[in-house]
Amino acid sequence: MDDALAQAAVRALIAQAELTPKPGLADARDLRARTTGADLLTLRWSAKALTPAFAAIAASARRPGGPTPALREELGAIGRGAEWTMSRACGGPAAGPHRGALWVTGLLVAAAALEPDAPPRELPAAAKRIAAHPDRRAPRRPSPGSQVSATYGAAGARGEARAGFPHVRRALDALSRARSTGATEAQARLDALLTVMSTLQDTGPLYHAGPPGLRRVQDGARGVLEAGGTATAAGAAALARLDAELGELGVTPRGSAAVLAGALFLDGLPVPLAHPSNRAV
């Protein structure tokens, strides 16, 4: 089961990276880091470099004891090691775009291993119980996300986890709605991303452009959805305008991309997780 969960997590990260066109975010157009500072090939490589870490997260969560403080601290240590591995694999801090996805998807991997009988849509609640504990071994140096949270009161990635990943659940709902109306898979995933962008207090835009930048992201995403979503001509045109504007502003809603990766992980989980053939022996 550990390897299956790890592979599902990596597939979700790569699917998120390859989804095109993502406004303000690296995608298939960015083979030379055209605007985002992270090319697609690097993102694929860094995602694959996380495979052992995701497997280790799953193995740790399967041990008896439930969502304990000790598990939270162990997952934190694995995550910090994985960040170092990404940096080494990709030649420096360019691996940074997957940092948020490592947090979101890593917690969901742990939840899936901890509760293999639970339906995928219930796993954010299990992740919430893990994230409720502090990581007492975490470095005390501030991160850009923590600085933004302190300055603007944004929940950030940790707040999202402690709330049970409400935006992951919203993304799953958006995927279902778009598919039911006949949208292509890419259109459904773009609509799910825009649904997250429309309400998430994404610390990326806040860090680079303050509240006005975040409002532009949210208003632009909402405008695409109100125009009918990316499956309509009006929605596609609104998406193109938002993409161009965020590119010019240099605003990258990476938190929203991380949430989408978590939703795609849950959406693509092997079923049933608890089947004997999926268990490690």
Give a written overview of the molecule.
One of its GO terms (molecular function) is triphosphoribosyl-dephospho-CoA synthase activity. It comes from Streptomyces bingchenggensis (strain BCW-1). There is one protein chain. This protein has one domain (2-143, 152-278). It has 13 helices and no strands. It has helices at 2-18, 40-49, 51-62, 69-90, 99-114, 123-131, 144-152, 156-162, 166-180, 185-197, 203-226, 233-249, 254-267. The longest helix is centred in the last third of the chain and has 24 residues, at 203-226. It is globular, with a radius of gyration of 18 Å.
How would you sum up this structure in a few lines?
GO terms for molecular function: ATP binding; triphosphoribosyl-dephospho-CoA synthase activity. The protein is mostly helical and 281 residues long.
Pick out its properties:
281 residues; mainly alpha; 0% strand
Oligomeric state of the chains present here: single chain
Broad shape? globular
Using only C-alpha atoms, the radius of gyration works out to: 18 Å
Estimate the mean pLDDT confidence. 88
The poorly predicted ranges are 274-281
Give the CA-CA distance, first to last residue. Answer: 9 Å
Give the domain tally: 1
The SS-based structural class is mainly alpha
Largest sheet: none
The count of helical stretches stands at: 13
Number of strands: 0
Helix content: 55-70%
What is the string of SSEs from the N terminus onward? HHHHHHHHHHHHH
Strand percentage lies at under 5%
Annotate the secondary structure layout.
Layout: H1 2-18, H2 40-49, H3 51-62, H4 69-90, H5 99-114, H6 123-131, H7 144-152, H8 156-162, H9 166-180, H10 185-197, H11 203-226, H12 233-249, H13 254-267
Helix pairs in contact: 1-2, 1-3, 1-5, 1-13, 2-4, 3-4, 3-5, 4-5, 5-6, 5-13, 7-11, 9-10, 9-13, 10-11, 10-13, 11-12
